[in-house]
Design a protein that fits this description.
- The structure holds two protein chains of two kinds.
- By secondary structure, chain A is mainly α.
- Chain A has helices at residues 2-19, 23-41, 45-70, 79-95, 100-122, 127-134, 136-147, 149-152, 168-191, 193-203, 205-210, 215-241, 251-264, 270-285, 293-307, 312-320; strands spanning 158-159, 243-244, 321-323, 330-332.
- Chain A has three domains: 1-41; 43-303, ABC transporter involved in vitamin B12 uptake, BtuC (Orthogonal Bundle), CATH 1.10.3470; 311-346.
- In chain A, 72% of the residues lie in helices and 3% in strands.
- Chain B is mostly helical.
- Chain B has one domain (2-290): ABC transporter involved in vitamin B12 uptake, BtuC, CATH 1.10.3470.
- Chain B contains eleven helices and two strands.
- In chain B, strands 1-2 form a two-stranded antiparallel sheet.
- In chain B, strand 1 and strand 2 (133-136) form a beta hairpin.
- Chain B is globular, with a radius of gyration of 19 Å.
- Chain B starts with a helix and ends in a 14-residue tail after the last helix.
- The mean pLDDT of chain B is 84.
- At the A-B interface, helix 6, helix 7, helix 13 and helix 15 of A face helix 4, helix 9 and helix 11 of B.
């Protein structure tokens, strides 16, 4: 009893002293609550479907950030991982009769393999070369998909895959809980020692190498991790839509994920996730203007970037929070002194 | 024998088109370090301009071509000034901005012309037969016009002062700036030339292809492959790379089963193989600031 009380008190203190003091943390907490309680407020299948898909794409966008934002390895063919994950899960489910909880991780492992295969030749390339080369890989696979329609379903894709969960609400919970969990894991990875090395590789690869770190191994690790998470997103998509088609490999999907991530702000994990939850429902709810919605979407992205080239959510965070000049702890912008070391904030 | 001729003609034409596109893309990348994803979108815009001018306004095809190139060049310079110039320091933001621009052009075109397939009549009708292969005059015209423009461009880059400024800025921006080259204005001019080249390519290729708002995607990918294969910012590389990939495509289409689906895959595999051996492309050099 005493132990439980102790932990309760500890939880309360943490919430009071660590979460409530910063608006960004409150926002994240509210987001968790909102996502988990969503089906209580609405049973509208359409809204649930939009948020389920947004969650799937949020995992996808965050995984792009893990690779391209943190490590600086611009990947323009991220749809490859998504598509391989989707096709992998679909084929495992259809031919080996493996249920979704098994076929999705297996599909993700295939995506990891794809990450290794494209990672090894790509590691010698830098910057724009890498970006333009990675663009090629999903196209190559797409050509193969169309060339062997008996195995891959060709233009129509693979249909008749098992349902993710019996009901739509269950679908929603599976995807949302996975999304929250995986994004937290990704955020933790970027916060760990490995994440610091990722940061350093982006900033100055030669300096990292001269400090005795095998950068090739770390870059390959980034490719594999990112491929794994994107593969899970792809598998979830295949099982949720119950079809794995060539649209999962298209260039537009690769571009879409870059748009989401850069719009939200790279090197943050939360930025791409938040951007997906802003842009994806926006695009869906604009269906009253069916003909104009992609145009409007592009214009919104263009104008936002013109004023906030570092990304919308990074810009917002800079507005509501300041960093203490002495101890580097973040504070709410309304404070005059730092909450930890009481140094005056400017 | 006729198969060989077919391959040569098809390879030469797609190679020249890719070379024109890739040279334009290389120019603006070299001078301003802008990866202009919307490059082939301008090519699409020019093609639609010609469609409007010839079909609705009933203009002469040559006049339509001139109008299309001028209008598209202006459009390119305006969008550079409005959207790209302000965020040039942020590399990722420029990428997204150009993707968004491409999407905007695509959507505007599909609003006006819907997604249906359109076509433009050839400048010169008819064909002649060599060794049992039909060669359309339009194909010959496209090939000659492409080669001619490339020759003019080379003369411009290597014989004029502006060309010298472009080449030196591409080599080293800071030193070029120190020598009194107005880098901002030069970037603008280069954007104009680059978009103009894309527009011209669109203009000469339009009778050979089908017009649709999505038509900018396939050449975009091939063009990027060419640029990477030849080496970023290298004009010679773009030229050679374009013919390598053009012929690779043609060979696959005519010789392999299911070739039409696999042509992109095989061409891109060629690019990756070359990159495995030479990571900086065929004629590429590592830029000093990028290490």
């Amino acid at each position: 009893m005493k132990l439980i009380l102790f932990y309760l008190r500890k939880l309360f203190t943490i919430i009071k002293n660590e979460v409530l003091v910063l608006p960004s943390r409150v926002a994240v907490a509210l987001f968790f609550f909102f996502m988990l309680l969503m089906p209580v407020f609405t049973n509208d299948i359409y809204i649930l479907r939009i948020f389920t898909l947004a969650s799937i794409f949020a995992i996808f966008a965050a995984s792009w950030d893990l690779l391209s934002g943190y490590t600086g390895q611009m990947n323009f063919g991220h749809a490859l991982f998504f598509g391989v994950g989707a096709y992998g899960a679909a084929l495992f489910n259809l031919h080996a009769q493996i249920p979704p909880w098994g076929s999705i991780p297996l599909g993700a492992l295939v995506a990891v393999l794809a990450g290794l295969i494209i990672g090894i030749p790509s590691l010698r390339l830098k910057g724009t070369y890498l970006a333009l080369t990675t663009l090629a890989f999903p196209i190559i696979l797409l050509g193969l998909v169309f060339a062997f329609p008996s195995f891959t379903g060709g233009e129509l894709g693979i249909s008749g895959i098992a349902k993710l969960a019996p009901t739509r609400v269950a679908d929603y919970y599976v995807v949302v809980v996975l999304m929250l969990g995986l994004c937290t894991i990704m955020w933790k990875i970027t916060d760990s020692n490995t994440g610091i090395i990722f940061h350093a590789i982006r900033e100055d690869e030669i300096a990292v190498r001269s400090s005795g770190v095998n950068t090739t191994r770390y870059k390959l690790l980034a490719f594999c991790l990112s491929g794994f998470f994107a593969g899970i997103a792809g598998g979830l998509y295949a099982h949720f839509m119950r079809i794995a088609g060539p649209s999962t490999l298209e260039v537009s999907l690769s571009f879409q994920v870059v748009i989401w991530a850069v719009f939200g702000g790279v090197v943050t994990i939360y930025g791409p996730v938040a951007a997906v939850f802003l842009l994806y429902p926006l695009l869906e709810f604009m269906h009253f203007a069916q003909d104009y919605r992609i145009l409007l979407f592009a214009v919104i992205v263009l104008l936002t970037l013109l004023y906030m080239p570092d990304g919308l959510f990074r810009w917002l965070r800079e507005k509501i929070e300041t960093e203490c000049p002495r101890c580097k702890v973040r504070n709410i912008a309304t404070r005059d002194t730092c909450r930890i070391c009481t140094a005056p904030l400017d | 024998m006729s198969l060989v001729l077919d391959i040569i003609i098809s390879g030469l034409i797609s190679g020249s088109i890719l070379a024109l596109l890739a040279i334009g893309f290389s120019l603006i990348f070299g001078v301003a370090r802008i990866v202009n994803i919307a490059h082939t979108a301008f090519y699409m815009v020019a093609a639609y301009c010609i469609y409007v001018a010839t079909t609705y306004l009933g203009l002469n095809a040559f006049v339509a071509m001139v109008i299309a190139v001028v209008l598209t060049t202006l459009l390119g310079m305006i969008s550079y000034k409005l959207f790209i110039n302000a965020i040039r320091e942020h590399e990722a933001a420029v990428l997204i901005a150009t993707i968004a621009l491409g999407m905007i052009f695509q959507e505007i075109m599909s609003l006006f012309f819907t997604g249906s397939f359109l076509s433009v009549p050839a400048l010169i009708e008819g064909y002649f037969i060599i060794l049992g292969v039909k060669v359309f005059y339009q194909q010959l015209l496209t090939l000659c016009a492409g080669l001619l423009v490339m020759a003019v461009l080379m003369a411009f880059l290597f014989k004029t002062k502006l060309g010298l400024a472009i080449r030196s800025t591409a080599q080293d921006r800071e030193v070029a700036n120190l020598m009194g080259i107005n880098e901002a204005r030069l970037a603008m001019v280069t954007m104009g030339i680059s978009v103009g080249l894309a527009a011209f390519t669109g203009a000469i290729v339009v009778p050979l292809t089908i017009l649709e708002p999505q038509m900018w995607m396939p050449p975009l990918i091939m063009m990027m492959a060419v640029v990477v294969l030849g080496g970023l910012g290298s004009l010679k590389g773009s030229f050679v790379g374009a013919y390598i990939l053009g012929f690779a495509e043609a060979l696959v289409v005519f010789l392999a089963p299911m070739g039409a689906y696999l042509k992109g895959s095989v061409a891109l595999c060629v690019m990756i193989l070359v990159l495995l051996i030479r990571p900086e492309g065929l004629f590429g050099v590592y830029f000093e600031e990028e290490r």
